[in-house]
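Exercise 7. Given the encoded structure of a 211-residue chain, write a plausible sequence.
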């Protein structure tokens, strides 16, 4: 268990954004970052991602097609990573994992492993390590951009993206960035985690109405 406690997020201190407004604001702010870094915490074990053909294939139960579609995007990911490197930008992800893996997380770890192979910085941490911060509720989905903006990404109960809350208080942003950095520091590289915990798994079995 990590003794460090996650900072509190008070929704009234942020600004609620619709999904389109969040996506636009995120993109515009991220594109201005030069010689800086961003930090993302991924906690939920199930998402209904939109706009991903591979995710759609998983939803249909076509595991081989889902993996093939991930493989097909490798060149695009590599080009994006090179572009970020040229402007001195580094995006870090921390993925909290519960066992047994949900079908979504099993699929996502294939995706994250590929991203890491293309140069992205991704580490995995078991849910037990963040238990101290989850006595009342699970950690939120959080992204800190360039040390200046924090987005609490919102989802419906089913895991569908539902906009975000934007925070710009510098002290709050810094405390959350430091918390995610602490998780990253004790996390395991996603490639080694994948090789040990995921590579040997059979295709996931989808339950009715949920994967």
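Solution.
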């Amino acid at each position: 268990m990590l003794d460090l406690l996650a900072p509190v997020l008070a929704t009234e201190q942020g600004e609620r954004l619709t999904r389109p407004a969040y996506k636009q604001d995120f993109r515009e702010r991220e594109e201005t970052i030069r010689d800086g870094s961003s930090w993302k915490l991924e906690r939920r074990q199930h998402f209904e991602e939109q706009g991903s053909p591979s995710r759609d294939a998983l939803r249909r139960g076509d595991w081989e097609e889902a993996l093939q579609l991930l493989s097909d995007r490798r060149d695009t990911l590599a080009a994006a990573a090179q572009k970020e490197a040229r402007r001195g930008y580094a995006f870090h992800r921390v993925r909290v994992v519960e066992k047994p893996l949900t079908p979504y997380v099993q699929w996502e770890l294939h995706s994250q492993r590929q991203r890491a192979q293309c140069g992205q910085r991704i580490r995995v941490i078991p849910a037990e390590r963040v238990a101290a911060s989850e006595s009342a509720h699970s950690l939120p989905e959080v992204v800190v951009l360039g040390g200046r903006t924090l987005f609490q990404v919102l989802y419906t109960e089913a895991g569908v993206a539902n906009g975000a809350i934007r925070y710009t208080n510098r002290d709050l942003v810094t405390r959350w960035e430091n918390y995610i950095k602490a998780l990253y520091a004790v996390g395991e590289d996603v490639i080694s985690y994948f090789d040990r915990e995921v590579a040997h798994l059979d295709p996931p079995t989808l339950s009715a109405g949920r994967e």
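Remark. The chain has a mean pLDDT of 94. Students should compare their own answers with the one above.
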